[in-house]
Specification:
Rossmann fold, five-stranded parallel β-sheet, 9 helices
């Protein structure tokens, strides 16, 4: 199957926008967000949505959430920490390799929750910062977004934020804003892999 250039698709979507629609941006952390916000701010009215029950432990979850205040004054919704939601979603896949089925279940969980919030609160668009990571499969992330936009009737903004040196830009922005940059994706299973 041929890969879709989701960076190009995003640029086409953004250039066709009328006015500044309300965008719910699921954010995994401030460093990744630092590489995404400059690409979206002029096109949309953004609310940051921090829903990451995969993050372990709770102190790490809170530390990552606090970093957004260094980066931006955009509205930020910080969801209650409920790690059991993640554990339930990945049950049976805990020992999968990084980037495998466990990670896909995690991405599905976070995106579906984001779509549900967007639908309930009348947002026009949803997207996520996850594709900025070179360790995340943009094809999979965008296929989830496509499926969920049909289910929730909220438009998904396709993206592959790592393109056009997006990841490198986020590293430089993280240094500029003195952001805490974590050493593992988030869950205890990715933490174990790194240590």
């Amino acid at each position: 199957m041929q890969k879709v250039n989701y960076n190009l698709v995003m640029k086409q979507q953004l250039s066709a926008l009328q006015g500044k629609p309300r965008l719910l941006l699921h954010v995994c952390c401030a460093p990744c967000s630092s590489g995404v916000l400059p690409k979206l701010k002029e096109y949309s009215d953004i609310t940051l949505y921090y829903y990451n029950p995969n993050t372990y432990p709770k102190d790490e979850y809170l530390l990552r959430a606090e970093q957004f205040a260094k980066l931006t004054d955009l509205p930020l919704v910080v969801c209650d920490y409920n790690h059991n939601e993640f554990l339930d979603a990945v049950k049976g896949f805990e020992q999968n390799q990084e980037g495998g089925t466990r990670c896909q279940k995690c991405i599905e969980l976070r995106l579906e929750n984001s779509f549900n919030y967007a639908k309930t609160n009348n947002y026009d668009y949803v997207t996520t910062t996850l594709s900025i990571s070179p360790h995340k499969d943009a094809q999979f992330i965008n296929s989830c977004g496509k499926k969920l936009q049909q289910q929730y009737n909220v438009t998904y903004l396709y993206a592959d934020f790592k393109k056009d040196n997006g990841f490198l830009f986020s590293i430089n922005e993280s240094k500029k804003y003195d952001l805490y940059r974590q050493e593992y994706c988030g869950c205890e299973f990715s933490f174990t892999t790194k240590n």
